Amino acid sequence: MSYHVTATDPSLLPDAFALFRRTYVVARRAHPLLPALTTEYEARLQRRLGGALGQRGVAVTRDGRLRGYMIASARFDTHGLAAAVVPEFAHAAAAAEFEPVYGRLYAALAERLVGEGIHLHMIGHFASATRLTRLLYELGFGALVAEQLRDLSDVAAPSGAVVQREERWDAVADLAAEHEAYYRASPMFLLKDGTPATIAADLDEHKQAGDALFVHRREGVPQAYLIVGRCPGATMGRLFEGTDTAQVRSAYTTPAARGRGIGTALLRGAVGWARAGGFERVLVEHETANPLAAPFWRRHFNHYLTYSMRYVDRRL
Ligand SMILES: CC(C)(COP(=O)(O)OP(=O)(O)OC[C@H]1O[C@@H](n2cnc3c(N)ncnc32)[C@H](O)[C@@H]1OP(=O)(O)O)[C@@H](O)C(=O)NCCC(=O)NCCS
Q1: Which of 27, 78, 107, 177 could be cross-linked to 126 through a Cys-Cys bond (beta carbons 3.0 to 4.6 Å apart)?
Q2: Number of domains making up the chain
Q3: Prior bond to 187 cis, omega within 30?
Q4: Are residues 131 and 177 in the same domain?
Q5: Residue 228 and residue 244: Cα distance in Å, rounded?
Q6: Pocket residues for ligand 1 (CB within 6 Å)?
Q7: How far is the CA of 211 from the centre of ligand 1 (A)?
Q8: In terms of residue numbers, what domain contains 97?
């Protein structure tokens, strides 16, 4: 019997969710900090998947049964190109037919995306799903962003660096601008908007959201900061929307002060804040190519999800 590729529609929800649910159960076994599949959480995931199925997805069926699905987001601009992302809940395949199904799903989806002028393709996938990670690599994807989780246990911070809650958010405007500029460097080559107006608006947004700012000062001058808040679960940490999950939203130590335990002390403050606020876990996301962030977060968190990216020749 041959495979058929069709467009997704909301009527596929029960079968599509059953496929994703199996993937999630396996991932949660490897990463127990992922939310438990309570009735409420399942209903939330189903609502999200139901909404996505009515959009830009492809499905593979065999013998009239759904074997896999893959749904891309709306187009957005990043890295100077038009892009679309397949969120972590927006793809799954029957385990027994995993490789032929994923191959067909991505080929069909990519053809449509390229036809629409979308040449940057991203996908979120569980770090524990090693077969899928390998398959994506063979399809031309490479790692872009890692999402990591930790529990609320105390962070060991032996340096004794002093960090304090800071209520005046503009005190870190210069450091935040330095932080944005940091991403331009090799091997990240990421262009961020570090204009004073954008920085001020961004800091104000954190303040309005009730986020907490922790700062380390030397002779009164901020040398490092960390922002922690509730994980919105919109474009990052999508599986945590509506859950009690805190997220490290930003962290930066000026070059001369690095490697002395200041970042660790800031993280300790953030985890204490999350614990006092009744959160259940802390999330952080970082560019996998960030040479300072990757080892630092790996030391304190557990990598559960990767966003990978593939570029297709834009002349096509
Ligand atoms: C990531 C970052 C915030 C860490 O800040 P930091 O103040 O250097 O953090 P620490 O000093 O606590 O830890 C850094 C390293 O120094 C080591 N260290 C910790 N305490 C130390 C001490 N007392 N003496 C010497 N080294 C120490 C740590 O083991 C750590 O090593 P690791 O990265 O292999 O885990 C900093 O590197 C930075 O600003 N990077 C650029 C921006 C960035 O990447 N931000 C994160 C975005 S997701």
Answers
A1: 27
A2: 2
A3: yes
A4: no
A5: 13
A6: 159, 179, 182, 224, 251-253, 258-264, 286, 290, 292-293, 295-296, 299
A7: 22
A8: 3-140
